[in-house]
Specification:
It is globular, with a radius of gyration of 21 Å. By secondary structure, it is of the alpha/beta class. It folds into 2 domains: 240 residues, Type I PLP-dependent aspartate aminotransferase-like (Major domain) (Aspartate Aminotransferase, domain 2), CATH 3.40.640.10; 132 residues, Aspartate Aminotransferase, domain 1, CATH 3.90.1150. It is built from 14 helices and 12 strands.
């Protein structure tokens, strides 16, 4: 079955007793047993809930993985994955990554003896140099956040296998509609489902997909014991949002490419970070492992004084954190998404005070370009 059909069919007639087209919201903490020693498969909603199960089965199918797990946020999903590791373990991770992931590693897991090396994961050589006897995993964002660097997933997964490491991929930016890392060799996929999967900026959620039964058992045990689960109403919202993922992302990609072209020619824009304009090798990787460039881009203006003016002047595009919704949003990473990364680290990887990140929505492209044009007008 093609992915567009899988998306639309999520939850359809899963409720066998009624045949409901839309999976009902099972707002129940507990479930009765038919008799001693027998269960319906649902006992307590921390462990399993019918509405959440539909979401978990859907994301596992979309990512071509063994099992899916739904969490109360993307950060709860990442936390659960990191809880698999032990004091003394070492992780190699993309140096250009979401600031919340950096904060979690540096402020929470570092104190428990889990160490991290941040490197340019678009370079296999750079990754290889950082692998030690203590390394247990390679953690990748591709495209990276916010500089849109591309990692060669096949090559990294092969490197990980050769060194008996796990490959963890944050697939939030592209979703399984555009990129499926598990068939390329990845072990664990993470999503902030608040973003493209739900698509309407109305829910906070996280998802994990595991490639093997043993990993599924580990994540399942941690999720059940820590209890960072997604509630049934939010699970239903994510499933509903996913039904239109294909049509939303197709429109968002078309808009994003045209905006990238516009910004690339604008005299007040210094650099555009978008896979279409990536170094040729990275662009080729992207075109091999993904079926589109996605709808995220970043750009640098020529002068820092333009930043505040632009953010104040945009009208159609909203100055707000987050991404992936139908509404176009613009963010200033230096003081928002990447504020917890030290200044010297941000500057070293290229997250400068000139940089703005744009999540392109489904609005009319003429309105979006006109909005950026008037906001960039330095008068």
């Amino acid at each position: 079955m093609n992915i567009e059909t899988k998306l639309v069919q999520a939850g359809v007639s899963k409720d066998q007793s009624t045949g409901a087209i839309s999976m009902p919201i099972y707002q129940s903490a507990t479930f009765s047993h038919p008799e001693l020693g027998k269960s319906t498969g649902f006992d307590y909603s921390r462990t399993a809930n019918p509405t959440r199960k539909v979401l978990e089965e859907t994301i596992a199918s979309l990512e071509e993985g063994h099992a899916g797990f739904a969490f109360s946020s993307g950060m709860a999903a990442i936390t659960t994955v990191l809880l698999m590791f032990n004091p003394g373990d070492h992780i190699v991770i993309s140096n250009d990554l979401y600031g919340g992931t950096y904060r979690l590693l540096e402020e929470n897991f570092k104190q428990y003896g889990i160490t991290t090396t941040y490197t340019d994961t678009s370079s296999i050589t750079s990754i290889s140099k950082e692998i030690t006897e203590q390394t247990v995993a390679i953690f990748i964002e591709t495209p990276s956040n916010p500089l849109m660097k591309i990692t060669n997933l096949e090559a990294v997964c092969q490197l990980a296998r050769e060194n008996h490491l796990l490959t963890i991929v944050d697939n939030t930016f592209l979703t399984p509609y555009l990129q499926r890392p598990i068939p390329l060799g990845a072990d664990i996929i993470i999503h902030s489902a608040s973003k493209y999967l739900s698509g309407h900026n109305d829910v906070i959620a996280g998802l994990v997909v595991t490639a093997t039964e043993s990993l599924s058992e580990k994540i399942g045990r941690i999720q059940n014991s820590t209890g960072a689960i997604l509630g049934p109403q939010d699970s239903w919202l994510v499933v509903r949002g996913m039904k239109t993922l294909a049509v939303r992302l197709e429109k968002q990609q078309i808009n994003a490419e045209q905006i990238a072209d516009f910004l690339n020619e604008h005299p007040l824009v210094k650099n555009v970070f978008y896979p279409k304009y990536a170094p040729i090798e990275q662009k080729e990787w992207m075109e091999f492992q993904s079926k589109g460039y996605g709808a995220m881009l970043s750009f640098e203006v020529v002068d820092e004084s333009l930043v505040a003016k632009l953010l104040k002047k945009v009208n159609v595009i909203r100055f707000a954190e987050s991404l992936g919704g139908v509404e176009s949003l613009i963010t200033y990473p230096a003081t928002q998404t990447h504020a917890d990364i030290p200044l010297e680290v941000r500057e070293a990887i290229g997250v400068s005070n000139l940089l703005l990140r744009l999540s392109v929505g489904i609005e009319n492209i003429e309105d979006l370009i006109a909005d950026l044009d008037q906001a960039l007008n330095d008068d």
